[in-house]
Amino acid sequence: MIRVSDVRFRHAAAGPEVLRGVDFAIAPGEVVALLGPNGCGKTTLMRCVSGQWRPTAGQVTVAGHAVANQPARRRALMVASVAQDHEMSFDYDVFEVVLMGRTAHVGAFSAPGRRDRQAAEEALAQVGVSALAARRFAELSGGERQMVMVARALAQAAPVLLLDEPTSHLDLRNQLLVLQTVRAIAAQRGLTVLMSLHDPNLALAFADRVLMLADGGVHADGPAPQVVTAANLATVFGVEAEVVELAGRHAVVARRAI
Ligand SMILES: Nc1ncnc2c1ncn2[C@@H]1O[C@H](COP(=O)(O)OP(=O)(O)OP(=O)(O)O)[C@@H](O)[C@H]1O
Question: Which family does it belong to (predicted)?
Fold first, then answer.
């Protein structure tokens, strides 16, 4: 489980405080969406949760251990992240990229074994991109890369999965495919999932809970339909919208920017 305790963050000592006392916990098996306007600090928060950035104050723990204090290998066994952009400095094929997700499981002087290759194959199959395995990663489309990076994070088999805008390059079917796969695997393996999203409808459809960030803090935190409301969309996003209920599901109909 993730525990974020009164986290504060500034990018530069003299700069503005981007996160100003963010506090929440996520239980195993829970899928939480992080919603908030551009520049509100979603990526910054994800990087603090992954341990990549150390909060200016407060702390993040995973299963009781502070992530920022862990060596990279141990952190990779605790948290798997999919970042927003997927540049690779070398020319790897897709299978190699997914196999890299297993690095923390492989001994310092060993090569990936049969179990690692099997985990990589399974992850590619789960995300539905086995057919890409032999392609050069650099030649893939943005959406294909995103699917491969989700497979790599699943192959990593960490108890916490962080996804920063996992649907941003994806077509409609692949948006649904990635999020339904993440949900199913979270339930199956009891993963703790935090994902930033831009589309409140995807949050309503796939998240158990929504954290809405505004002004460096948590503006609202609760079950998706209680957080994705017309009032919060107006206050936090400056959008006039209606939230309708159709066949037991909620959907946002955005009318205009206020
Ligand atoms: N490396 C950096 N150095 C200085 N400021 C930064 C850096 N990265 C982000 N910021 C600033 O921190 C604030 C939060 O940025 P962040 O990327 O966390 O927002 P976000 O909510 O993920 O935005 P978006 O939805 O546009 O991706 C912004 O004002 C941004 O300009």
Answer: Belongs to the ABC transporter superfamily.
Atom of ligand 1 at shortest distance to CA of 198?
A: 25
- Ligand 1 mean position, distance from CA 11 (Å): 9
- pTM here is 0.92
Q: Which amino acid is at 195?
A: M
Residue range(s) defining the domain that contains residue 159: 2-257
pLDDT given for residue 89 in this prediction:
64
**How high does pLDDT run on average in the chain?**
91
pLDDT in tens, 125-172: 988 899 999 999 989 888 888 889 989 999 998 999 999 998 888 889
The CATH number of whichever domain residue 41 belongs to comes to 3.40.50.300
| Of 11, 17, 82, 218, best ligand 1 pocket probe by most atoms within 8 Å of the beta carbon | 11
DSSP state letters, 40-70: SSHHHHHHHHHTSS--SEEEEEETTEEGGGS
How many structural domains is the chain composed of? 1
Of ligand 1's listed atoms, the one at least distance from the Cα of 12 is 4
